[in-house]
Amino acid sequence: MENQTLDIRGMTCAACAQRIEKTVRKLSGINQASVNLASEKLFVEYDSSSLNLSDIKAAVAKIGYEVAEKPKNSDVTIPIGGMTCAACARRVEKAIGKLEGVESSSVNFATEKATVAYDPGKVRLSAIKSAIEKAGYQALEVNKADAADEDRARKQREIKTLWTKFTISAVFSLPLLYIAMAPMISFIRLPFPAALEPMNYPLLYALVEMILVAPVIGVGYKFYTIGFKALFQKSPNMDSLIAIGTTAAVLYSIYNTFQIATGHFMAVDALYYETAGVIITLIMLGKTLEAVSKGRTSEAIKKLMGLAPKTAVILENGQEKEIPIDEVVIGDVILVKPGDKIPVDGTVTGGHTAIDESMLTGESMPVDKKEGDPVYAASINTTGVIQFKAEKIGSDTALAQIIKLVEDAQGSKAPIAQMADIVSGYFVPVVCAIALLAGIGWYIGTAGDLKFALTIFISILVIACPCALGLATPTAIMVGTGKGAENGILIKGGEALETAHKINTIVFDKTGTITEGKPKVTDVLVAGGILKDRLLQLTASAERGSEHPLGQAIVLGAKEAGLSLLEAEQFDSLTGRGIKARLEGEEILAGNRKLMDEQNISLAGMEEISDKLAEEGKTPMYVAIDGELAGIVAVADVVKESSRAAIERLHRMGIEVAMITGDNKKTASAIAKQVGIDRVLAEVLPQDKSNEVKKLQSENRKVAMVGDGINDAPALAQADIGIAIGSGTDVAMESADIVLMRSDLMDVPTAINLSKHTIRNIKQNLFWAFGYNVIGIPIAAGLLHLLFNGPLLNPIFAAAAMSLSSVSVLANALRLKRFKPETGKR
């Protein structure tokens, strides 16, 4: 299975998104297809062995939408100066083609540009430019803005075009509206040109209105080209509604203009030119405001994309050389001075500094970096000068991975959106049917009053708004996941975002999650006459082969005590119990009571001491030599500062908190007491953690698991929501639904709270979107007039209401930007 994200152009409403989804899902080999109307993206998962990406693109293009092509990283377009003829172009082409690593080159003399496909691992962009210069021409600045800049520029152009179209339509539709309405207003005598009096000069009056509406229709031509095409293909959308309604108004008006010309002057009362003009103008305004608001929903991801620097300073033969970021290759040694941004991911090879990584983690305090420490693209070097080796570039950097994760999350659909999707799929055809039936019904009911029936028909078509339904969920998810990313909380999808607000039980792993995960040796207690240093030396030597944090703490404790470690002749890790090793002919066992019981080793005289240590929150490790108890090495792990505050906050939110650990019950209970844990699951083997989560789920609980290690991965996957601490392993992060980029447990209640706010926002949006259509369509159909002899809804007011419905949904989603993370303060 392969996943791809495609940029789609030409969508105007939820019906368009539904149509693309339906078309793509019909293709053989498609596993999943989801369209995000707000971000204009199609997310597909397909079997690449049976289906090509080009087939998907072709299917989308066939139904009238455009798939925007993304240039490859190794493709570049270089503007060239100095060419005078086609021979110059051939010469440049030849010069570039000679370079090793250049796959293809094409020079267009007319556009004065060279398009080059090359392998950045074999040839740098600067070498290609140099070859052009050596051939006697100018290699001008490469116009290779990154994807974020291109997307931003494109959307800004779209907004500018929409504003221009709205301005033009307003310039013509306002005088059109005045000319149409002024003669009808009897209680105020508005100034009006005598030559246009409808009763005296009806034909001139009608022709002036026709001339004024023509530019407005011209500006809104896309409503007709897209709308009628979708209608003829039996997949009508919002544009179809507007196209049918305004076309009916204009054609009816043209017919009545012809009637006036043939002497039927009373037809001047049945002109609808201003209705068509003002409807298009108002909808154009709504579309413009919608585009501006949609742009703001994805601001968080644009900020992330804009963080990466454009250039890097590399060391080449001992010389500093500034190159574009696209030219950095793995293995380059990069120099970063104070105040500069880290250009790519890598490992420090020289120097010492503090780096602000808040863009990745949300943590405001700079992190000390020395030789051997990792650095990440877009973080800021605050103090010293460092050199580091480039290890991850382009789409492999941590920043790029975060952007990809957030983009995927923003494109995913929450289960709550399913009802809106179903309604959107049938919405436009049903509205067309209602408009037609209501129009015919009123025409018959009013004994042939075509003007009355047409008002009903147009009002229904124009007031119906599938856009509000289509935007209700994705916009809130985009803002919510973006807000999370700003605060170092990566939510992997709409389903995770929705499920998180239902969580009523959270299970925390102890080591590295509630505690710092950096335990230290606190006590060495001996039995049987062995010296303390000898016991610590043997235990540490045996633990050298262990990856367990407690074992590593003992090794570190021995080194700090100045003890030399011995080579183990044999080593076995006994999962969930401890270790067994052979040192200098002696068999060493180090572990918990379970291990000692298994090996029939008596703990006489040490059990009380062990219990006391456990009550103090320390983890006692029994050590036996050749089958005899030799003593206890106790290790303690410090509780994180944020743990108690986070658990108190979760309690205030009505969430039960449990802790799961392989530690003995007394140690676990001591830690739990310190931080206010409700339920302790102690002495749990790593492979049994997921079973403990299952048991809680069997009690009809919605369970979240918070962990940071490889052994937490099954439990993270089993839980309704898996939350991985960012300082943990890649495996844990891969298994999780939510990733906390820093190790602050206050981010757990923040993530739950963000989910609650987002889902509440989605529900509000859906309520208004559904409510607007449920109330608006019957009013437009003349329900008030039928029941209470009330007024009809003027199509112009229907258009204004329709435009405002989408904007109101977007404005409500943008309120999520005010969300504040938890601080630990009451």
Automatic annotation (TrEMBL):
GO cellular component, one term: plasma membrane
Gene3D superfamilies hit by this protein: 3.30.70.100, Calcium-transporting ATPase, cytoplasmic domain N (3.40.1110.10), Calcium-transporting ATPase, cytoplasmic transduction domain A (2.70.150.10), HAD superfamily/HAD-like (3.40.50.1000)
An example Gene Ontology molecular-function term: ATP binding
Reaction equations catalysed: Cu(+)(in) + ATP + H2O = Cu(+)(out) + ADP + phosphate + H(+)
Key words of the record: ATP-binding, Cell membrane, Copper, Copper transport, Ion transport, Magnesium, Membrane, Metal-binding, Nucleotide-binding, Repeat, Translocase, Transmembrane, Transmembrane helix, Transport
Start and end residues of each HMA domain: 2-68, 74-140
Principal localisation: membrane
The enzyme's E.C. designation: 7.2.2.8
Highest taxon, organism lineage: Bacteria
Record-annotated membrane-spanning stretches: 162-181, 201-221, 241-258, 270-289, 423-444, 450-473, 766-788, 794-816
A Gene Ontology biological process term: copper ion homeostasis
Membrane topology: Multi-pass membrane protein
Subcellular location: Cell membrane
Matching NCBIfam families: ATPase-IB1_Cu, ATPase-IB_hvy, ATPase_P-type, copper ion binding protein
Family statement drawn from the similarity comment of this UniProt entry: Belongs to the cation transport ATPase (P-type) (TC 3.A.3) family. Type IB subfamily.
Listed PANTHER family: ATP7, ISOFORM B, P-TYPE CU(+) TRANSPORTER
Protein name: Copper-exporting P-type ATPase
Species for this entry: Lacrimispora amygdalina
